[in-house]
Write a structure and sequence with these properties.
The chain is an alpha/beta fold. The chain has 10 helices and 11 strands. The chain folds into 2 domains: 2-204, no CATH class; 211-311, no CATH class. It has a 6-stranded mixed beta sheet with strand order 6-7-8-9-11-10. A 5-stranded mixed beta sheet has the order 2-1-3-5-4. It is elongated and about 80 Å long.
Length: 314
């Protein structure tokens, strides 16, 4: 698939858009970076050539995705932020990219249009909306997103680092390709992370994970990203979560955050940051490994010892 975009200093909106298309077309893309009007004009009516961030038109039938034209006023329905090329491509190809990254999301057994919709929306909210706002000069909106959304990522700053410096000998197109590959990796990792959280919630709902609650302690029989799975409302009566690491070789007790962001529980000051040998002396538990210096977390090698230890403290 051939893609035309502008040359010169590159920005996150066209870089991210090309990264999305690269995923959709299995990296089988040819990128032409130019502002030559003849080349752009000759490609405008070829639906098999994407024109991104140049050309002065937005027409999905002819694969034209520019947002700089004076009459362009397409905004996201939720944020009201004007789309950039990144937002336009994600709007039209985001779901395709997600299915390429996690094809099992539309498998016969697990198919859910809602799962696909939620990931598409989450990537827009956390990543694409920041690019759109910044590229269109809506800096106040961009700052609001970064302040109010703890998961928001400002990819624009990262992409800008890839532009060659004035004294660099690096080829501009090679630098551009590096930036695209970086965005490809970010998109893939973010989508996989969000899909993993969806699967964890389904595990919980289907009772595939044994959950036990004792004295404001929630005990999980296998590792899941519980902070993303459980809302604070779900953990209202829970102060500590005990769970195994991803290998099931150690067990962690971690404090739950209250609505104000403070830990509901803390391990004693005398144990915090102490070496293992000293922890064994102070507690009498041979499997104790570590107590964080701030007191929010402890690690044991034996699950039953850890449960007993925590129950004596809560």
């Amino acid at each position: 698939m051939k893609i035309i975009t502008h040359d010169g200093i590159f920005h996150a909106d066209e870089v991210f858009a090309i990264a999305v298309l690269s995923i959709c077309y299995d990296n089988d893309i040819e990128i032409v970076r130019t502002r030559d009007e003849k080349i752009i004009r000759s490609a405008k009516y070829n639906e098999n050539i994407f024109i991104l961030d140049v050309g002065g038109e937005y027409d999905i039938r002819r694969s034209n995705y520019d947002h700089h034209q004076k009459d362009f006023e397409m905004r996201n329905i939720d944020t009201k932020i004007l789309y950039s090329t990144a937002g336009l491509i994600w709007k039209n190809y985001g779901s395709v990219a997600i299915i390429k990254i996690v094809p099992e999301i539309v498998s016969e057994v697990n198919h859910s249009d809602f799962d696909l919709y939620m990931i598409e929306k989450k990537v827009y909210k956390d990543i694409v909306s920041v690019i759109d706002a910044g590229d269109n000069g809506e800096f106040e909106n961009k700052e609001k997103i970064l302040i109010n959304n703890k998961n928001a990522i400002d990819i624009s700053k990262i992409v800008s680092i890839f532009n060659p410096n004035w004294d660099d000998e690096m080829d501009e197109n090679a630098a551009f390709n590096e930036a695209v590959n970086m965005c490809v990796n970010i998109i893939k990792r973010y989508v996989k992370k969000e899909y993993s959280i969806i699967k964890a919630k389904k595990y919980i709902n289907r009772n595939l994970i044994k959950i036990e609650e004792i004295d404001s302690i929630l005990i999980l029989d296998r590792f899941i990203p519980w902070k993303q799975v459980f809302d604070k409302e779900n953990l209202y009566y829970v102060n500590v979560v005990i769970y195994p690491n991803t290998y099931g070789t150690q067990y962690i007790a971690e404090s739950v955050k209250d609505f104000d962001g403070k830990d509901k529980f803390s391990f004693p000051y005398r144990l915090r940051g102490q070496p293992k040998e000293r922890l064994i002396e102070l507690t009498g538990y041979k499997s104790i490994e570590f107590v964080h210096r701030t007191g929010f977390l402890a690690v044991f090698n034996d699950k039953d010892e850890l449960i007993e230890f925590v129950r004596n403290l809560v």
